[in-house]
Automatic annotation (TrEMBL):
The keyword Cell membrane does not apply. One of its GO terms (molecular function) is DNA binding. This is TetR family transcriptional regulator. It comes from the Bacteria. It comes from Nakamurella leprariae. PANTHER family: HTH-TYPE TRANSCRIPTIONAL REPRESSOR NEMR (PTHR47506:SF6), TRANSCRIPTIONAL REGULATORY PROTEIN (PTHR47506). Keywords: DNA-binding, Transcription, Transcription regulation. Pfam families: TetR_N. InterPro entries: Homeodomain-like_sf, HTH_TetR, Tet_transcr_reg_TetR-rel_C_sf.
Length: 173
């Protein structure tokens, strides 16, 4: 229970101050646990970060898979992809910040790249319920790219543009 609270607090701290600003002291304070609990539950900051990012990626993947599992036909699958981009994948600024921090860390550290690689594989597996594997990699990249663009742009991409992009990528299905 305490370990879970620490992991959840770590994600909150990462969202607030980034990986560079995340420390045992800040996480312990956010989790409302004694500083000594950090070393009892985790060998070091790297283990804590790995656990936190792994949990986050699994949670987002579960939402993604659930959305795709609800689709009953090709049109519903396309609508599900649009909803993933416009509402689900990075539902709020916290999720966006954590995702971008993980991506930056994975660009430099192979151990974290394993988390992002597994995350992408789970996303493609969910997409492959409805789309051929020849389409899923491009569709997955579209989902990630448009989600970030929508979140960071001063001129957001509207839902109709997203739907048109999904339609173009999946037209050959």
């Amino acid at each position: 229970m305490r370990r879970d609270r620490i992991i959840d607090a770590c994600l909150d701290v990462i969202a607030e101050v980034g990986v560079a600003g995340t420390s045992h002291r800040r996480v312990a304070a956010a989790a409302d646990v004694p500083l000594g609990s950090m070393t009892y539950h985790f060998f070091g900051m790297d283990e804590l970060l790995h656990e936190a990012f792994s949990r986050f990626a699994a949670t987002v993947s579960e939402r993604f898979a659930a959305r795709m599992a609800e689709a009953t036909d090709l049109d519903a699958a396309r609508r599900a992809v649009v909803t993933l981009i416009t509402a689900d994948v990075l539902a709020d600024r916290r999720d966006l910040a954590i995702t971008l921090e993980l991506s930056a860390l994975a660009a430099r550290e192979p151990d974290y790249r394993d988390i992002t690689t597994a995350w992408m594989a789970r996303s493609r597996a969910a997409l492959e319920q409805h789309f051929p594997s020849s389409v899923t990699r491009a569709l997955d990249a579209l989902i990630e790219g448009l989600t970030v663009h929508r979140a960071l742009s001063t001129e957001p991409i509207d839902d109709a543009t997203v739907a048109a992009a999904v339609q173009r990528i999946t037209a050959a299905v």
